[in-house]
Amino acid sequence: MRGSFLPLFLFVFLIQGAVFADDQALRQKALQAGLAPLPAVAPEAADNPVTPQKIQLGKRLFFEPRLSKSGLISCNTCHNLGMGGDDNLPTSVGHGWHKGPRNAPTVYNAAFNRAQFWDGRAKDLEQQAKGPIQAAAEMANTPDQVVQMLKSMPEYVAWFRESFPSDPDPVNFDNVVKAIGAFESKLITPGAPFDRFLNGADNALSPEQKDGLALFIDRGCTACHNGVNVGGQAYFPFGLIKRPGADILPPEDKGRFAITQSASDEYVFRAAPLRNVALTAPYFHSGQVWDLKQAVLVMGAAQLGAELSDEEATKIAAFLGSLTGVAPEIIYPKLPVETDETPRPQL
Amino acid sequence: MRGSFLPLFLFVFLIQGAVFADDQALRQKALQAGLAPLPAVAPEAADNPVTPQKIQLGKRLFFEPRLSKSGLISCNTCHNLGMGGDDNLPTSVGHGWHKGPRNAPTVYNAAFNRAQFWDGRAKDLEQQAKGPIQAAAEMANTPDQVVQMLKSMPEYVAWFRESFPSDPDPVNFDNVVKAIGAFESKLITPGAPFDRFLNGADNALSPEQKDGLALFIDRGCTACHNGVNVGGQAYFPFGLIKRPGADILPPEDKGRFAITQSASDEYVFRAAPLRNVALTAPYFHSGQVWDLKQAVLVMGAAQLGAELSDEEATKIAAFLGSLTGVAPEIIYPKLPVETDETPRPQL
């Protein structure tokens, strides 16, 4: 009886060994393709040291609707920390119910992007934060009005002093976005199944996800979507091989061309970072595709000239699902009460 | 040397004793006028037992923008838990940037009100929650669409099962508002200086606040603003003695008359609960008065026929500031990701 089990044991052992070897090979392949585990901490900007006080202030500002002209729209309105760090709308809605031109990117792990916005027009989180506060179709406010609002409340003045102790006049617009940037730099989502796989946990990915990862590399997706953020590092024309339809790539939005005025930047966008992509539909700068598999098919045709099969796209989408990490716990902040000097909401 | 201090000690002791006696008398007077400390726990509705599961579900629903047609507006948009439980706007802004007709009341301690809305048209928190979800100028949704949205996400289905274990088909609109009501019943703000004073802490109120409390009683404010919520218990005509101007009391909003069609209910509103009133400007159903002292003066003239002096109004406003309690800590909820069956945002 005992003897008869031995070959079975050996067989299982050999198969297991083969699987382990495959997993190790796939892991190496992923690392060689430029994919990498998400660090738990983002690098700090030299001119914006991240202190606990600044993070707290930044959190309050992130949830502060009085940063907007109406008093109704906060950063969290379009970058909802409970919904993957975006608004799950095709394009965002702002002041006066105006619809913005592009889909809101997630704020989670944005600290790891080379630049911010779909066209990379802001070099970091701090510069990014200046945009929506002032955009007419978003928060529609002015730096002067923001500073007046913050100076009107003694709690904010004290918090700015604590956060910028060497600054003689700390309540200013540059410090507003530094505080927001400091908070956002902590919005990291480590512990995704893909990270656990890269760190040695063979079973963190399902067989389908492993096939999807292999395809993601073999088909060339990693040419653009690489690094710790699986994208967000460089610019590429949308429709490199074949231009998508006007619903997905509206002709009037020429992407990075609007920044550089260089013909070679027409319809060029920053490769989307794919961390938590399963939480951030709808997809593309136009926000017109809700299904992740469909988005994979669009990308295959547009960027790689590849007619991916339904099965391949399913597997790649399953792999992309393994990029969903664990968002930090956020205690909802209590905001200070306004005073006579606080600008009134302008609806 | 020692002997020369004795009279001073005696003097201080006697003064202190007099102050203690005054404090005790003021405390008794306040209790006799119908004021009462805020309980830490709200009474439970017989048909809506408050379980931890239901509170959690209700919290998620409270912060869920997909309860709205646009996918952008949650309960928290107008009842911001970081801003005193309201939106600090004159009147609320909803779907399509429509301005609602009335100022959003705070959700904090609303469980202690006799009825909900400025006109009391909802008997409890559950019935209240049905209103804004469906109002065209607020969330503009339908019960069917809400149920479809919730049934489309397996996490919500599981949470409703846990929250309503004996219900064979738990995902329904009545249970949506029961869960929201259960969460809201925990939004209690105990520990206000006024409560500490009522509970025996003589120094919890400043001398100015004590004077204000005495005036609040002596001038008759407690005739309407009484009970644990310092209001919220009964209905009164706004302008009982002298009708305020049309900016504060717009002629087209006849208050409770719209509910009862009774001529005696013209311009009748529920006495505003005054807990945390210092956090919830602007004031009145029209939201046209930002300054609390000004609001006190308006009330004195309109309801009591009293020309309060500036000093008296200042003292009463200082007392009202002692009604600000400690709001519970809220961990911002993570919401489930949509599926193919989730209704898409309709902007």
UniProtKB/TrEMBL annotation, chains A, B:
<dbReference type="GO" id="GO:0020037">
    <property type="term" value="F:heme binding"/>
</dbReference>
<protein>
    <submittedName>
        <fullName>Cytochrome-c peroxidase</fullName>
    </submittedName>
</protein>
<feature type="binding site" description="covalent">
    <location>
        <position position="78"/>
    </location>
    <ligand>
        <name>heme c 1</name>
    </ligand>
</feature>
<dbReference type="Pfam" id="PF00034">
    <property type="entry name" value="Cytochrom_C"/>
</dbReference>
<feature type="domain" description="Cytochrome c">
    <location>
        <begin position="207"/>
        <end position="324"/>
    </location>
</feature>
<dbReference type="GO" id="GO:0046872">
    <property type="term" value="F:metal ion binding"/>
</dbReference>
<feature type="binding site" description="axial binding residue">
    <location>
        <position position="225"/>
    </location>
    <ligand>
        <name>heme c 2</name>
    </ligand>
</feature>
<keyword id="KW-0479">Metal-binding</keyword>
<dbReference type="InterPro" id="IPR026259">
    <property type="entry name" value="MauG/Cytc_peroxidase"/>
</dbReference>
<feature type="binding site" description="covalent">
    <location>
        <position position="75"/>
    </location>
    <ligand>
        <name>heme c 1</name>
    </ligand>
</feature>
<dbReference type="Pfam" id="PF03150">
    <property type="entry name" value="CCP_MauG"/>
</dbReference>
<dbReference type="GO" id="GO:0042597">
    <property type="term" value="C:periplasmic space"/>
</dbReference>
<keyword id="KW-0560">Oxidoreductase</keyword>
<keyword id="KW-0574">Periplasm</keyword>
<keyword id="KW-0249">Electron transport</keyword>
<feature type="binding site" description="axial binding residue">
    <location>
        <position position="79"/>
    </location>
    <ligand>
        <name>heme c 1</name>
    </ligand>
</feature>
<dbReference type="GO" id="GO:0004130">
    <property type="term" value="F:cytochrome-c peroxidase activity"/>
</dbReference>
<feature type="binding site" description="axial binding residue">
    <location>
        <position position="299"/>
    </location>
    <ligand>
        <name>heme c 2</name>
    </ligand>
</feature>
<feature type="binding site" description="axial binding residue">
    <location>
        <position position="95"/>
    </location>
    <ligand>
        <name>heme c 1</name>
    </ligand>
</feature>
<dbReference type="InterPro" id="IPR004852">
    <property type="entry name" value="Di-haem_cyt_c_peroxidsae"/>
</dbReference>
<keyword id="KW-0575">Peroxidase</keyword>
<keyword id="KW-0732">Signal</keyword>
<feature type="binding site" description="covalent">
    <location>
        <position position="221"/>
    </location>
    <ligand>
        <name>heme c 2</name>
    </ligand>
</feature>
<keyword id="KW-0813">Transport</keyword>
<feature type="domain" description="Cytochrome c">
    <location>
        <begin position="53"/>
        <end position="184"/>
    </location>
</feature>
<dbReference type="GO" id="GO:0009055">
    <property type="term" value="F:electron transfer activity"/>
</dbReference>
<dbReference type="InterPro" id="IPR009056">
    <property type="entry name" value="Cyt_c-like_dom"/>
</dbReference>
<keyword id="KW-0349">Heme</keyword>
<dbReference type="InterPro" id="IPR051395">
    <property type="entry name" value="Cytochrome_c_Peroxidase/MauG"/>
</dbReference>
<dbReference type="InterPro" id="IPR036909">
    <property type="entry name" value="Cyt_c-like_dom_sf"/>
</dbReference>
<keyword id="KW-0408">Iron</keyword>
<feature type="binding site" description="covalent">
    <location>
        <position position="224"/>
    </location>
    <ligand>
        <name>heme c 2</name>
    </ligand>
</feature>
